[in-house]
Amino acid sequence: MKFWVIFILILxxxxxxxxxxxxxLKGKRSKEPAENKxxxxxxxxxxxxxxxxxxxxxxxKVYSIMTQVMDKGRFQKPPAMLSMSAGQNMELRCKxxxxxxxxxxxxxxxxxxxxxxxxxxxxxxxxxxxxSAADTGEFSCWAQLCDSAGCRKDESKVGxxxxxxxxxxxxxxxxxxxxxxVYLHPDKPTVIPCRVTTASAKVTLHREFPAEVIKxxxxxxxxxxxxxxxxxxxxxxxxGVVYCRAEARGAPQISIKYQLLYVEVxxxxxxxxxxxxxxxxxxxxxxxxxxTVLGEPDVEVEFMWIYPGQxxxxxxxxxxxxRLVNRGIGHTTRISKSIIxxxxxxxxxxxxxxxxxxxxxxxxxxxxxxxxx
Length: 373
Description:
- The chain has helices at 2-20, 106-109; strands at residues 63-64, 66-69, 75-76, 81-85, 90-95, 99-102, 115-119, 123-128, 137-147, 150-166, 179-184, 190-192, 202-207, 212-214, 221-224, 228-231, 240-247, 253-254, 257-263, 271-276, 280-281, 287-295, 302-306, 317-326, 331-342, 351-359, 362-372.
- The strands form five sheets. Strands 11, 13, 14, 17, 18, 19, 20, 22, 24 and 25 form a ten-stranded mixed beta sheet that branches. Strands 1, 4, 6, 9 and 10 form a five-stranded mixed beta sheet that branches.
- Helices cover 6% and strands 45% of the residues.
- The protein has two helices and 27 strands.
C-alpha cells in the first residue's frame, strides 16, 4: 500500500513541474498570473579602473643653468646660499649662447674692474677677482630668447645664488655712507638694509632713543638674512633712528644708523594741483601758472607743459624745484613745483595751459585757462 502512495505522489510532483515550469514548494502559495514576470537579477559588477589620460598641456620645467667653477677644474651646482672667504676669486658659468646677468649694484657703481663678464659659444661666464665683504649679494643669470622684436627672458632656464663674502673685520656689508634715510610707506613693506657677511651671525635691531631693542616677532617685523629687517606694515610710531647689532664668534659690531621717516602720502600717480596768478590778463601784462605735486619723499617727479603759444615758438620761462617738508615727528613729504612765466601777454597767449606731472607710477594731467581782458 505504501508503495502505491509514494508512486502516486511522484506522478503528481512531475505533473506540477510540467504545468508551472518549476517544482512545487512546500508551504508556498500559488502565484497569480501577473506574478510570473521575471524580475531582473542584481549582479555584482567589479568596479572598472578608469585611467585618466595625461594632459596634453606641457608643464614648464625650471632647472638651474648655473655652475660654480671650483679648484682643479671641478664644477658644482651652487646652493641657494653660498659662503666664501673675502679675498677669494669666484667664477660662475651659465649654460646658453645668450646669457644675461644680475649682481650686486655695488659692483656697477664705479664699473669695477674686478668684475668680468664674457659670452662664450656654449655658456656665459662671470669672474670676480679679489672679492670683498661689499660684494655680498645675489648673483643670477638667465637665458635669453631673441628674435626680430628683441630679447626676452627664458623663465625655464635660470640660475641664482646668494653669496656671503665673509670677513671677520666686516660683519655688516659695508655702506657708502654713515647715515641713511629710510622711508616708511604705509602701503608697502619697508626694509632696514643692515645685511651681514656671515649667514650665521646673530643680528638684533635697536632704537637709539629711547634706547631699546626692537623685537622681530616674525609677523610685524621680520628678519631676512638677505635683506635685513623688514617692517611688514609700517606705522608712524615706528619713526626714529635705529641701528643693527651683529655677533659672530667675537666682539659684536654695530651697523650704520638709519633715520626712519614716515610717509603721509600713499604711493601712486602724482597728486597735483594747478593755479594761475590771474584768469584774465591785459595786453602786455605778465602772469604765471604754478603746478604743485605733494608726494613721496624718495619719488622724483617730472613736469611737462603744453601752452597756447607753443606752436608759434612763444618764449616762456619754466622753473622746476622740489624740497622735503617735515610735517611733524617722523613725517616727511616731498613738494615738487613747476612754474611757467609768461611776459608781455599777447592774443596767442590766451587759452588752456596744461601741466603733466609724471612719476614711476603714472601721470596726472591738469589744465587751467587764461583769457584776455
